Amino acid sequence: MTNPSMFSRRGALEPRVPRGDVLGTYETYAEAQQVIGRLAHSDFDVKRLSIVGNDLKTVERVTGKLTYGRTALAGALSGAWFGLFMGLVFFIFSPTPNPSVVFSAVLIGAGFGMLFSLANYAVSRRRRDFTSTHQVIASNYQIVVDPALTAQAQALLGQTPSQE
Questions:
Q1: Where is pLDDT greater, at 4 or 95?
Q2: According to CATH, where is 3.30.70 located in the chain?
Q3: In whole angstroms, what is the distance from residue 5 CA to residue 60 CA?
Q4: What is the dihedral of CA 127, 128, 133, 137, to 10 degrees?
Q5: 145-149 contacts, C-beta under 8 A, 24 or more apart
Q6: What span, in angstroms and rounded, lies between the C-alpha atoms of 154 and 164?
Q7: Any stretches that span the bilayer, and where are they (predicted)?
Q8: pLDDT tens digits along 97-128
Q9: Is 113 exposed, middle or buried (0-12, 13-18, 19+ CB in 10 A)?
Q10: 57-65 and 140-145 strand pairing
């Protein structure tokens, strides 16, 4: 059996929720980061802190309607990038380098990318006619601190012991 700590520079960390005192609860991740930044500037041992996101939700934001034109363009661009990569590989490792190989590979890649994207869209058209982005967000973020350092962290932040 393999030891997971062999492959991690920080050692094996079990995936578990950190335990300790809640130093504060914040609406955004950026606010929690700012508090940890303030503690870091005060030479606090920030390795003993954790940011815990609570009440995770998946948010899908619709960005537009998917059409044959958008599908063709996205497929052509994706295929062109792959064609560029392959063309550069052929150009670099060819015994007689020819720059037209790169241009040809980009055009062929764009053509195949467009054809495959259009075929995929035609098959799945009625199931998903929109584009979107996915995010996982938390309702709030808590900073959890080692109980032995709670008083020191509160003092550096100017908090009273009962304040959260």
A1: 95
A2: 17-56+138-157
A3: 36
A4: -30
A5: 145/20, 145/21, 145/22, 145/23, 145/48, 145/49, 146/20, 146/21, 146/48, 146/49, 147/20, 147/21, 149/44, 149/45, 149/48
A6: 9
A7: 71-94, 100-123
A8: 888 999 999 999 999 999 999 999 988 877 87
A9: buried
A10: unpaired
What is the reported pLDDT for 105? 95
Nearest partner of 64 among 124, 135, 129, judged by Cα: 129
- pLDDT(160) > 70: no
The candidate with the shortest Cα–Cα distance to 143, out of 6, 16, 41, 46, is 46
Mean pLDDT of the chain: 88
pTM over 0.90: no
Q: Which residues pair with 57 in a beta bridge?
A: 137
Encoded amino acid at 54, one letter = N
**Strands 140-145, 21-26: pairing kind:** antiparallel
Lowest mean pLDDT among 2-11, 28-37, 113-122: 2-11
pLDDT at 4 over 60: no
**Strand ranges (DSSP E) for 2-161?**
21-26, 49-54, 57-65, 130-137, 140-145
CA separation for the pair 91, 80 (Å, rounded): 16
| Residue 53 dihedral angles phi and psi, to the nearest 5° | -85, 130
